[in-house]
Amino acid sequence: MSVYDLTGRKALVTGGGRGLGEGIAQALARAGAAVVIGDIREDLGKACADALQGSGATADFVPLDITSEASWERAIPAAIGILGGLDIVVNNAGIEITSLLVDLDAEDARRMLEVNVLGTALGIKHGFRAMRPGGPAGEGGAIVNVASVAATIAFPGIAVYSATKSAVDRLTRVAAMESGKLGYGVRVNSVYPGLVPTEMGAQLAQDVATLGLFASPQAAVGAVVELTPLGRLGEVADMADAVVFLASDGARFITGAGLPVDGGMGM
Ligand SMILES: NC(=O)c1ccc[n+]([C@@H]2O[C@H](COP(=O)([O-])OP(=O)(O)OC[C@H]3O[C@@H](n4cnc5c(N)ncnc54)[C@H](O)[C@@H]3O)[C@@H](O)[C@H]2O)c1
Hints:
Radius of gyration: 18 Å
Distance between the termini: 34 Å
Structural class: alpha/beta
Number of strands: 7
Bound molecules: nicotinamide-adenine-dinucleotide
Low-confidence stretches: none
Helix content: 40-55%
Number of helices: 8
């Protein structure tokens, strides 16, 4: 069996209702994992789980607001009940609200901090509690956090978002250290996706043009491609395959790492 094979593994993907999370759930399932999608949008999450089931995968949906402790306390036991265990947690859910710093709205900033930083931190917390020895799924595992190329470059219009993704990077490293030191048996890594034209990515291109930073959304996309040695935007599958790798035994000696999946944009 390939070291990248996930047959028998049980995964929870946050924000799996659309975009990168949906692609990550599909890629994990293709690699053999059983997958539970956790999302604040029940309509999207259920549809995605249904589609996965239709393709023959073991998949289901649990409601999850990653910013809420109570929501995690319901979602993790529900996922373990459905899957019969838990080995992989992908902290993918996140939000982006574009703004120049000079026009920053405090509520928008708080919301991004809450979802991207607190939500990811709670995902690590509850993933650890479930997967560490003595936990309800206590056989160790892997956590993969979705940061962003924005954590590694300075792109105008996304200052607070970028700060939250730098925070995800630090959370990842400290989590890996605590897990190692305390014998949790859980590897913790992150990916830094480049721009992908999901709903979030397309909206970002629109918003930076509206702010006057680029002549048009197409010009914003063109500027990103220009900065990218591999000469194209990212695709959902590019990100999803990297997450599968970090979740698999192929990455068994990798923890505390941030993997750029950005065509070289952030190097
Ligand atoms: N698209 C890009 O260009 C890009 C680039 C780098 C990083 N990322 C990161 O990838 C991740 C996914 O982005 P995407 O482009 O798929 O975004 P998206 O907006 O298309 O999808 C995000 C999903 O997360 C869910 N979600 C939002 N808030 C939630 C909450 N509080 N609890 C649970 N679920 C919640 C949404 O319902 C949605 O299904 C995000 O963390 C984003 O920051 C995206």
